[in-house]
Amino acid sequence: MMALPKIAAIGTGGTISGVGEDRLDFYEYGTSGRFMRIDELLAGVPELAGVAEIVPVGFNNIASTAIGPVDWLALLNLIHETAADPSIAGIVVTHGTATLEETAYFLNLAVRVPVPVVVVGAMRPSSALGADGGLNLLNGVRVAGAPGARGMGVMVVLNDEINAARDVAKTSNYRVQTFVSRDFGILGYADADKVVFYRRPLRRCAPETEFAVAGLRALPKVDIIMAYAGADGALVEAAVAAGAKGIVSAGLPSGSPSPAQKEALTVAANAGIAVVQSSRAGSGRVIDGKVALREAGFIAADNLTPQKARILLMMALTVTNEADEIRRIFDTY
Ligand code: ASP
After folding, report:
1. What is the mean pLDDT, run by run of 10 residues, along the chain of 333 residues?
2. CATH architecture type of domain 6-197
3. Could you tell me if 296 and 265 are in contact, meaning their C-beta atoms sit under 8 angstroms apart?
4. Same fold for the domain at 6-197 and the one at 222-332?
5. Is 332 one of the annotated active-site residues of the chain?
6. Overall pTM surpassing 0.90 (yes/no)
7. Distance 324 CA to ligand 1 centre (A)
8. Domain 222-332 class, CATH top level
9. Which residues surround ligand 1 with Cβ inside 6 Å?
């Protein structure tokens, strides 16, 4: 019999480890603050023993609404430490779904070890009728140990679907099919018989990243300013006053701030703050237009959502402040 792959499972909390009052508690479970530790979560899925040798690795037990850059950096270090054991074939991270795509994209830009990293979550707490976390965890482990998983960058697995961290977004508040890679579709399936891949991301991703952030304690401060009808420049000015090194404009589709925001953002760009123009539409590119963007000193976010553009800008600002170099980075990742 072939040896099973050794997969490390890192627990961070979230609904997947949430415990509700009863089987119909689909919402208020978060208020109890009760999250299962990763070893408890694993114990609830004995079928894991049939697909991998699992090594539980504790991290923390919080809702992902409370996860931010400091946690990302700590998680990155833990992943690097865990993968230093050459017998580890892959790593699964259990995570709340609210910021799952942000942690996954950060890791996609930061992880420098070749073992596959898969982030999983759940839409229903472990105690609920129809809980989806156990199967998502099992599938995440299968994907992390699958022969084709290397070179895919960080992946997100829920609802039997394998998504690239760069492309995936949570698109619905409660549905189990919430994670969607809108413009490009999934990479493959975790089906009952096997894990199958159909395509590979072309944009540069883990472990082939130029960003060496593992030793950092914080990332440069980047804020997102939403555009909406009649928005004034006050929030842009507030971000600058609060010390933002970069600002992402979540623009009116196809990617522009309101006139008053544009004025304030132009002042910020002229003062050396990196301004990235994204779109709040959630699909499609922002075009690097000469008059709309270049003349104001703005950088196009390509097709990254505002929350992903923020993460790439934070990473870019760890290596450069030059607008043209940041443009190259947005063309690359
Ligand atoms: N509030 C939860 C979290 O992100 C939502 C979830 O996990 O689905 O931690």
Report:
1. 92 96 92 89 98 96 96 98 98 98 98 98 97 98 97 98 98 98 98 98 98 97 98 98 98 98 98 98 96 95 98 98 98 98
2. 3-Layer(aba) Sandwich (3.40)
3. yes
4. yes
5. no
6. yes
7. 37
8. alpha beta
9. 14-15, 30, 63-65, 96-98, 121, 123
